[in-house]
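Summary for the steering committee. One of the milestones for this cycle was to obtain a three-dimensional model of the protein with xanthosine-5'-monophosphate bound, which we needed before selecting residues for the alanine scan. The sequence and ligand used are listed below.
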Amino acid sequence: MISPSEFIKESIENIKNEINNEKTIIALSGGVDSSVCSVLVKEAIGDNLVAVFVDHGLLREGEVEEVCKTFENRLNFVYVDAKDEFLNALYGVDDPEEKRKIIGKVFIDVFEREAEKIEAKFLVQGTIAPDWIESEGKIKSHHNLALPGGMVLKVVEPVRDLYKDEVREIGLELDLPDELVFRQPFPGPGLAVRVVGELSEEKLEICRKADAIVREEIIKNGLDKELWQYFAVLTDTKVTGVKGDQRDFGYLVVLRMVASVDAMTAYVPELPWNVIRSISKRITSEVSEVTHVSLSISDKPPSTIEFA
Ligand code: XMP
């Protein structure tokens, strides 16, 4: 790649020529790819870019606030609270692929409504090189996307030739916060793939609290740089425990911490036992619904990184 500052200059010029100040929309998740794209396109076409942040209610603790704080003054930013819409659509569904399908569909519905409101002509996507190389070049560089309601948008992909580490360099050059640039990957369907079985607000909140403890301890102990992903999974299993002198029957939480280069394969590295123990103790004492914490030691393959 050319230097980050050269890339940014060239990219802004290309985007200006391609979009020509037409109304443009991006789904901003707060991950590094969509964040870098949002800022690049904003530099090129100003407020003709509308960055839509859809809150599906499946985000981690503090995430909504962080994304809003980072972008509401920097972009033409729209926060959409779609929590109820997603949770209602997911009610009673426990199959992981079914959950993913529903989330994808509701997401498109919500996003299309926003695109219609602004009469968008272009859609910016944060596709990076592995996304299309892995799908054997099936995603064309210039293409249109037809939304289910009939809207057709021209797709612009400013970082499609870059790899993750290069996107991060561009993010730093654009003055995005370090926590965002180096944030661990978080899947689009969010906590829905980390709460096994049917979702409920209560289960999501338990997973969110346990996950916040995992993140806090891993970062505090400086392990975040060597791990690709580190998170808590809320299983659908309940196990007996003791709280005080009372027997209790609560959830089993699994800690998943893997090292990887590209998520195609992953392994569980040796982890400092004191950190694992303090994460476990904190979760069982601070999240009252949890009676048992276990550590996943399975690599990918044969396991996947996510649990659902
Ligand atoms: P698995 O669980 O397949 O995950 O080993 C590999 C990587 O992909 C992420 N992942 C997803 N990302 N939508 C996404 O945007 C999904 O449905 C999804 N499922 C898994 C996962 O977090 C890991 O980084």
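Key point for the committee: The chain has a mean pLDDT of 96.
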